[in-house]
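Figure S7 source data.
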Amino acid sequence: MNRVMNIIREFMPARAVIVIALVVFVAGCATTGINKGQVNIISSDEEVRMGQDFSKEVEKQFEIYDNVEVSTYVQGVGQSIVKVCDRQDIEYHFAVIKKDDLNAFALPGGYIYIYSGLMKELDDESQLAGVLAHEVGHVTARHSTERLTAMYGYQLLINLILGDDPNFYASLVSNIFATGGFLAYSRANEYEADRLGARYAHAVGYDPRGMTELLGKLKGTEEREPSKLEELLATHPPTSERINRVNGIVAGLPGSEGTRNKETYQKIKGKLP
Ligand SMILES: [Zn+2]
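Tokens for the predicted zinc ion complex:
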């Protein structure tokens, strides 16, 4: 690679060489097998910094439900999933947003949020694990930075590294939050997050059927009160197709019996706003 860089250096100003060197370096460091063959020019460190900034923005725009018992519980379930997941180079954070809609999302860098409205719809811990594991799946597969790379390409990297245009970052954040929506992942991303999520929840010891039941609940709400699912459906494929696929995955997992922790979950549910 040195020879290549020397050749490039002769024809380019020093600053551009730094960028190219970083691009070559980042592209050369494929992470886990699940991210093989995908273009992602943002390093893990950059992703974490971006996640910190985005999470500040989220916490400005949404009310975080600040109940110690509830947040400790959600953190506990979330971190148990993190222990078995494919990406261990970052820290993960879980928080509850006080909102009646049914939604959950992951920011770059491992910042995961679930709405209190979705938690209230669930019956037990295996279903909550299904939601959180799906979001962890988005993070381990690096879907958000893949999307950003596809949307903004090398301009993003150049701006992040050189800080050439301070407005670029601000406009990036406001673009993403403009519609109250978040990075819309592709359908393939969603199915991958479901697949990884089912595998992670099962690896922790949860009954993987919790994941199918959770999707069944979303389907029910979709039919009864579609307005509560507006945000989720804007970013996710049709629930019926997700159910079909997750059923197939769950059927292939050995021993579908597993942890439910229904009583504990019900107690926590009683503390939701
Ligand atoms: Zn998703």
